[in-house]
Amino acid sequence: MKVSFYGVRGCIPSPGAEFNRYGGNTMCVTVEGEAGELLVLDAGTGVIELGKRLMAGAFGRGEGEASLFLTHAHWDHIQGFPFFVPVYVPGNHIQVFGPNSSPQMLESILEGQMNPHFMPIQSLGNLGANIELRSLMADEGVSVGALKVCAHSVPHGTMESLALKIEEGDTRVVFVPDAGYEADALEPSLRSFYQGADLLIHDTTYTSEDRATRISRGYASAEIAASVAAQCGVRCLVPIHYDQDYTDEQVDALVERCREVLDSSPGGASVDLVAAKESLVLDVPQK
Ligand SMILES: [Zn+2]
Fold first, then answer.
1. How far apart are CA 28 and CA 140, in angstroms?
2. What would the pLDDT profile of 70-93 be if each residue is shown by its tens digit?
3. Distance CA 196, CA 34 (A)
4. DSSP secondary structure code for residue 142 in this structure
5. Residues of 34-53 as b/e, b for ≥16 C-beta within 10 angstroms?
6. Which of 135, 211, 283, 285 is the most buried (most CB within 10 A)?
7. How many CB atoms are closer than 10 A to CB 165?
8. Which residues partner with 151 through β-bridges?
9. Which residues contact 25 (CB under 8 A, 6 or more apart)?
């Protein structure tokens, strides 16, 4: 699998020179399978640049196929969708999976985003591509070519988000951009969901000090991300979803904090650490 990062910020975009090294776009990561299957994980503003790049290939000819998985519908996970150019090209087929019990609920959220008060598009029906809305319940799995995608609910403030696990053969990538739990109270089922992942792309919004003052927002700290990675024996932790106000230097310090906690946690010293940033591409080879 090839994992590419297009947006790594939480909440709102962070334009400005002091954010450029990690990038200021909100959440969007792609996973490509060995046979070319394309999964898009969340549609924050990072998906806009992805869309432009895809237009150079099959999506520009109306022959593209992608599966978009939305972990939840907070702005930073859907705000790029109306600006994802491939949705306007007839012939493209885009499956959109959302964390609801029915596709009608996902449709009402995405239709709401197209409401004329927010967008001139008016309705999903005005997008040219074939957009297929599908629900993705926690504990359910779907297949996209040779890739298997499973979901597990995670607490996120007053609501829930999804953790997504993508498997190809024995290779596993887990994506959990928003996680409001405590590291010492990880549900056993979530622990086994993360266990042994090759990549754990995990919410690292705050330092523990900042998180303590904003606990109701439902995000994780560097300390939580590192502790969870060590507990679950993952091969590599990829911190992501940095607070929009943290400059590049502050994110550097956040990532250093992850390394310190990993090194002082049982089993953590052997966990690799690669910070998410725009344009980063990670190859996750088949075992
Ligand atoms: Zn978020």
1. 22
2. 999 999 999 999 999 999 999 999
3. 21
4. E
5. eeebbbbbbbbbbbbbbbee
6. 211
7. 20
8. 164
9. 6, 7, 8, 9, 13, 44, 45, 46, 48, 49, 80, 278
Instruction: Give the distance (Å) from ligand 1 centre to CA of residue 71.
Output: 9
- pLDDT average, residue stretch 8-36: 97
Tell me which residue range forms the domain holding 244. 2-283
In this structure, the strands spanning 171-176 and 159-168 are: antiparallel
Cα–Cα dist 65/30, whole Å = 13
Amino acid at 201: I
Question: For the domain that residue 135 is a member of, what is the CATH number?
Answer: 3.60.15.10
What is the sign, positive or negative, of the torsion defined by CA atoms of 186, 189, 191, 197? negative
Q: Report the alpha-carbon distance of residue 41 to residue 27 in Å, rounded.
A: 8
Would you call 9 helix, strand, or coil by DSSP? strand
Burial group, residue 184, by CB count within 10 angstroms (0-12, 13-18, 19+):
exposed
Specify whether the CB–CB gap between 262 and 274 falls below 8 A. no
What is the β-pairing status of strands 65-69 and 130-135?
unpaired
Instruction: Tell me the CA–centroid distance for residue 70 and ligand 1, in Å.
Output: 11
Strand partners, 176: 202
- 241 alpha carbon – ligand 1 mean position (Å): 7
Q: What is the CA radius of gyration of the chain?
A: 18
Q: What is the pLDDT of residues 170-189, one digit of tens each?
A: 999 999 999 999 999 999 99
Supply the DSSP string of 110-153, one letter for each residue: HHHHHSTTT-TT--GGG-SSEEEEEE--TT-EEEETTEEEEEEE
Single pTM value for the model: 0.97
Distance 285 CA to ligand 1 centre (A): 28
User: In this structure, are residues 276 and 201 in contact, taking their beta carbons and an 8 Å threshold?
Assistant: yes
d(CA 39, CA 81): 14
Q: Name the residues around ion ligand 1, CB cutoff 5 A.
A: 10, 76, 178
Per-residue pLDDT at 102: 76
Number of domains in the chain: 1
